[in-house]
Design goal:
The protein is an alpha/beta fold. It is built from 6 helices and 6 strands, in the order βαβαββααβααβ. The chain has one domain: Spore Coat Polysaccharide Biosynthesis Protein SpsA, Chain A, CATH 3.90.550.10. It is globular, with a radius of gyration of 18 Å. 31% of the residues are buried.
């Protein structure tokens, strides 16, 4: 079955940046692993509701398009991610069709090191008198953004990075559409856009398959 990599570039600034800086290596990567590349330049939902929130929410609609059903798996990749076509492994090789592949967000370079660096950062901001959202645990991350996590303890949750998501139209279309609808009014910029809602709903579903950190590394391109 066919597989594809999908991204979204809206606006001349983002289109030109992607085409100039990123697309050549994306195309090499897709050619290397026989993956189709789909670059969307128009919203999949242009309703007034959709216009109230970031275009990032549109990634929840990619499994329900007419063209999407020809693919066994679809990988969403944010359009600001650089791909090292010579070194990057096939991201589909880590995820079975019934699973949803994402990187754990609070775990780079290791969970303990992440926690230590976060505490150092918060300590510095406290000394500077800065106002910030304190997300010491995954539960803090969700509750600070208005997502009820009843039934989950502080150590029972993970935050998933939604910049790279491997999923399947056959298995996950309903979950993605329900998440898009359920959080219709969840569009404040402080909320990390779609990430808290999408992360929580995927984690809660039990379908999450952890992917290597290299697939969404803020410091080192994959």
């Amino acid at each position: 079955m066919r597989k594809c990599l999908v991204t979204l570039t809206i606006g001349d600034k983002y289109k030109s940046s992607f085409e100039r800086n990123l697309r050549p290596n994306w195309e090499l990567y897709c050619e290397k692993y026989l993956i189709d590349l789909v670059v969307l330049d128009q919203p999949l939902d242009d309703s007034p509701r959709a216009q109230k929130r970031s275009p990032a929410w549109q990634k929840l609609l990619i499994l329900s398009q007419d063209w999407s059903f020809q693919y066994e798996q679809i990988a969403w990749v944010d359009s600001d991610i650089a791909i090292n076509a010579h070194r990057a492994p096939d991201l589909f090789s880590f995820v079975a069709p019934h699973e949803i592949g994402l990187v754990e967000d609070f775990a780079f370079p290791t969970p303990d090191m992440y926690k230590y660096l976060l505490q150092e950062q918060y300590s510095s901001w406290d000394q500077q008198g800065r106002s910030f959202m304190r997300n010491t645990t995954a539960k803090d991350y969700y509750t600070n953004r208005g997502i009820a996590v009843d039934g989950f303890g502080a150590g029972d949750l993970c935050v998933l990075q939604t910049g790279v998501v491997v999923s399947s139209p056959q298995f996950h279309k309903k979950l993605f559409l329900e998440t898009y609808e359920k959080y219709e009014d969840f569009h404040a910029s402080f909320g990390n856009y779609e990430m808290p809602a999408m992360s929580f709903e995927i984690y809660k579903s039990g379908l999450w398959k952890p992917m290597p950190q290299e697939f969404n590394n803020m410091c080192v391109i994959f």
